[in-house]
Amino acid sequence: MSKPVLLQMFPEELAQWFKEQGQPAFRAKQVFGWLHKGAGFDQMSNLPLALREQMAEQAAANPIDIISRHRSQKEDTVKLLFSLADGHCVEGVLMRYRYGVTLCLSTQVGCRMGCSFCASTLEGLARNLTAGEMMGMVLLANGELPADERAHNIVLMGSGEPFDNYDEVVRFLRLVSHPEGLNIGLRHISLSTCGLTEQIRRFAMEGLPVTLSVSLHAPDDQIRAQMMPVARAWPMDALLDACRYYIAQTGRRVVFEYALVDGVNNQSEHARALAARLRGMQCHVNLIPLNHVPERQLRGVTRTQADAFLKELETLHISATLRREMGDDIAGACGQLRRRHLKKGADASLAVALDSTGEDTV
Ligand code: SAH
Q1: d(CA 192, ligand 1 centre) in Å
Q2: Where are the alpha helices (DSSP H) in the chain?
Q3: Considering only CA atoms, which residue is closest to atom 15 of ligand 1?
Q4: pTM, 2 dp
Q5: Which end of the chain has a smaller Cβ tally under 10 Å, C or N?
Q6: Separation CA 212–CA 247 (nearest Å)
Q7: Known catalytic residues?
Q8: HSE-up of 181 (CA within 13 Å, CB side)?
Q9: pLDDT one-digit tens code per residue, 235-274
Q10: Does the C-beta of 333 come closer than 6 Å to ligand 1?
Q11: How far is the CA of 120 from the centre of ligand 1 (A)?
């Protein structure tokens, strides 16, 4: 049987575990603090040596590892490839902005949502990530930063659909924002969903006022269904109603993600239809030029086209921004790095492949 992962546990659960180990429950608070600083058992210097040894024997601290790091040349972006205990791998990205470092995390190995423009879903879903694994990635990613720095913002926008892994994602959000741990403010966390409408309503009641991003990508059901199978299960009216409910419950505005695809959703008529759908809603539109995925036939837009779409929305009084593309030279689009890794089959060849495209491995 595999060892229990302590990063998966809340302090109360850790206390129970210590009791079962014949140890006093007060150790839980100490160990929770240490674990969430990224310490290994041998670094927990205020614990007796015998206890540290017992823990190392009976439990796992961080269940994952970093396989490789890929630093983009033009942006301050580092893509990390993590290995899981069962041999799977997932991606995370550290992005440096003016206001601090943002960490983009995956929530599943692969994805089963089937969006037509996304690399994460090409091989389907392998499995869900656990909260402990997501915590492990945060701590390892922080370890990549200078000693006095850590990720201040977390975006669940890597591979996977967070609401298809609802319970573990909610546990992760409570762990990462825990006052005795990393204590990352929920307002500094964004969760992006392809639009699982029932779960948006459920999530509104969790008391976790994170920024909800919804991948809309289209102004109507017909176009949306071409891009996203989820649109066939949940029409836009129901989705937007659930978003209004989230706004009412949490007091937070919703961000709509809109990837511009040439000839599909980027015409002036689409901007007008989108503005009409969103009018009166406390929301913001985040335009993303489609990141090219070699396996997909879809084309992105030019900067001029993206600017024109942005201007049109602004003229219609819809709050919107154009996201700059970060890390597209390091396979920054969701799921691309993991796919390269799967295709190459080995770290060494991955490093060579990246080197040959002029990218740095750190
Ligand atoms: N499953 C969640 C989160 C993961 S993807 C969701 O669908 O929201 C994070 C964002 O990147 C989503 O808005 C997704 O639609 C978008 N995305 C995926 N592939 C992309 C690509 N090739 N170019 C631009 N955006 C992409």
Answers
A1: 8
A2: 11-20, 27-36, 49-58, 131-143, 166-176, 197-204, 221-227, 230-233, 236-250, 268-278, 303-315, 336-344, 347-356
A3: 215
A4: 0.91
A5: N
A6: 9
A7: 91, 334
A8: 26
A9: 999 999 999 999 999 999 999 999 999 999 999 999 999 9
A10: yes
A11: 9
